[in-house]
Amino acid sequence: MTIDIKAATRSFLAQTEEHLVSYLEACVHCGQCADACLFYRTSGDPRHTPAYKLFPLARAYRQQKWPLNWFACKITEGDLLEWEDLIFDTCTMCGRCTEVCPMGIDIASIVGQARKAWADAGLGPRDLMAAAENSRDHGSPLGLTQEKLVDRVEWLADDDEVDMPLDKPGAEVMLTVSSIEAMKYPKSLSAMAKILNHAGVNWTFSTHGYESTNFGFLAGRSDIAATMLGRIVDAAEQAGVKTVVIPECGHAYGVMRWSGANILGRPLPFEVLHITEYIARLKREGKLKLKPYADPFTYHDPCQVSRRGGAAADARYILDGFATGFKEMTPTAELNWCCGGGGGVQAMERAADLRHKAFKIKIDQVEATGTGRLVSACANCRLTMDESKTYWNWGGALESLVEIVADHLEDV
Amino acid sequence: MSLLDFARGPAITVALAVFCLGVLWRLISLLGLPRAKDRSMRRAGASSDFANAIGGFVRHLWVPKGIGLTSRFAMINGYVFHLGLAVIVFGFAQHILFLRGLFGVGWPGLPTSIITLAGVVTLASLIAALVRRATNPVLKLISTFNDYFSWLVTTLPVLTGLLAVAHLGGPYETLLALHILSVAALLIWFPFGKLMHAVLVFVTRAETGISYGRRGVKI
Ligand code: SF4
Ligand code: SF4
User: Which residue range forms the structural domain that includes residue A327?
Assistant: First the structure.
């Protein structure tokens, strides 16, 4: 394998945009971020300190800036290799470290930028890169091709006796899917459909743009990130919808809602809502009639929806007055602990051992609530938690918020 | 020219010039970089960027409960030496005289006993910070020359200042000259090393406050 150090450096330097540089220059090496990171907390390995993950970028930047370059060492192939696992395997871009940082440095976004340099150098975990390329070539990282989508939707519509429109003309809302749901938790799709139908929403799936997970973004492949975004944006524009709803997937929401317009270089001509935001809106508008639900459970905030998305309150609003057995874990909402599988870490085989170990934090949190049931609004979290649950042989139950809502709709 | 004359004259003048031009250059070259425009749609009801910038600054003055702070001691210790330095720089009568010479405004000073106490506490706090940096595995790994050198140029003025006030270790004039020279070293290093964080903290906290604020994140 050849490592293109020049491409990596070019890519670093192409990103010397003001806020990134401020962040790189501002770190005071105080080390306070270490324990906020689930990976450091789990491994106790100083290399997993969030600030350390930024070292190569800071170095690359300094070596070209006078007179900081008097004191800078050159970035080498060895650096890229040595830091690869820090930039990919042990950062879920969860953003916890920013909360403790006295300088308020947004490490997650810098790691996202750094991944581009690694990808340009021809580095990065093979399976993550393959997931990105599969998305580009086959429409989805998990083999959810157009035909498969049609197949799944027809099967679910039939099985669950629910209307699931595909490419319906004149729809106002376009619902997207995460292939993780479609392939591993298909009932999530029919659950969303049930809720939208119950509320009388004029909605559709599109066969032209359906996959909302964006492994191009997570892999540092800007070209694939733009392709994946473009498919949904084009489909939504052609269908003339006002709203695009992102399913239970945290990163899909973060990328489309907060980065999409920036990656494409123009404002999106529709609003983007996470499914929990959309359900909350339906409830606010009085379109959601729910039967009470009393089972005890606690809620896991997907980092990109709550801490980095600003939508933590909506999940609570949905549960309020409906789910009487709901109990918050500590810490929660914007301060939650990541599941361990965000940022594409879920797709990296070699990262599995550490992320499983890190899941112990979550298990302890759930145990402390005494509910024994963990509900989330992210299929990627759910898959991560499912795998880690097996690893720990943990007896807790895992569920989806949307499915619980769908199961408690009043008949209309 | 005596050592004191040199320190008071050319040394501090050059140091002040390097400090001012250096900080200005760092800021201009930073803020002059291209700035990516955020094209995402703000969350409805999000505060203005200005309010979010202030909010970001205030928010990062402390650590939310339950997030997993690495060391409460280090956080408090950080406050101790930062405040200690501020008290010494802006509270000591002689420093106020010097600052009045520069800016033309003065204010009443604190009693020397309080300044001396602040000096001793600050010195102890800085030493504790150094010991922690040199022994904690995380800090050992992430510390560079910049960190140690910045520590040195911050600590020397405190140490030499205390010695001068106490007339300890040599003739007063020499101690004072060394004190002024150590301040000159600090000023010269300031724009090039991590002491710049004293300026950058306003930039980074504000920017994080703005980007989180427009998303409607409530922390
Ligand atoms: S973003 Fe999360 S995973 Fe990445 S370094 Fe920070 S705390 Fe660790
Ligand atoms: S907490 Fe912030 S300033 Fe301190 S080491 Fe971590 S990133 Fe750097």
Answer: 298-407
